Amino acid sequence: MDGFLNDHQMMNSREVFLHEVATVCVLAGKILLQNGAETFRVEDTMNRIANSFAVHEAQSFVTPTGIIFSIENHDVTQLVRIRDRATNLRKVTEVNTLSRQVAQGEINLRTLHRELSRVNRSTVAYSVPLQVFAAAVASSSFLLMFLGQWHDVLPAFIAGGAGQAGMIYFHKLSKAKFFSEFMSSVIIGGIALVSIKTGFGFQIDKIIIGAVMPLVPGVPIANAVKDIMAGDLVAGLSKSAEAGLTAFAIGIGVTAALVFN
Fold first, then answer.
1. Angle CA(152)–CA(157)–CA(162) in degrees, nearest 5?
2. DSSP single-letter state for residue 71
3. How far are the Cα atoms of 43, 57, 78, 125 from residue 49, in angstroms, in the given order?
4. What's the pTM value of the predicted model, to 2 decimals?
5. Chunked in runs of 10, what are the mean pLDDT values of the chain (261 residues)?
6. Three-class SS of residue 77?
């Protein structure tokens, strides 16, 4: 009887451990997927973490809107719905660093869970003024890269910064997809048009192109190509569609600003 109870307790403790491993793996995958990581990277990281804790029967299935993680031959399956996605490569880097530390045996399961929870709770890596300034500098730099004139650098700087500020504001105002990109493009187009009409700027096409470049979904497009090449066709095609709709919203916003002014 005592042997049976001991075996039962060992089985229960093993099941608890497996559930904890699954929770940690899903949390790591959620952070990666929400912050711009490729689908195959999310699956690989989750499996590597599980293998590091001697759980070799783990299976993961990731799409842009959800994660399914299970452990074969055990009653362990977790699913998480992904509703919000952004680009924060700092969080991706932190999760990758933690996964490497786990693989090397430097941290245990409890420490990993605590650190992942900290990364998940952390707010935007950079302040709003810094984001706006960076977008403004990038916009003026892109203008020069596309052979714009030096006297259009300041209009592009202003338009790019205002567009980034508008995108941050409208994203907080409404969670409707592509609405913030559309409105920020309207702002950029309006500022560019006003700068031309007042003689402050000279090449409206170069100003607009430079200012909208920080809004272009470069990371989703790159991830879509990588996912398709890796064989994740569902994720690759859905990310391609999302990037295409974002680009469409930017184009429509600029056009609306030019037509109605």
1. 130
2. E
3. 10, 12, 15, 25
4. 0.76
5. 41 77 92 88 90 87 88 84 83 90 88 90 78 92 89 91 90 79 91 88 89 85 83 81 87 84 62
6. strand
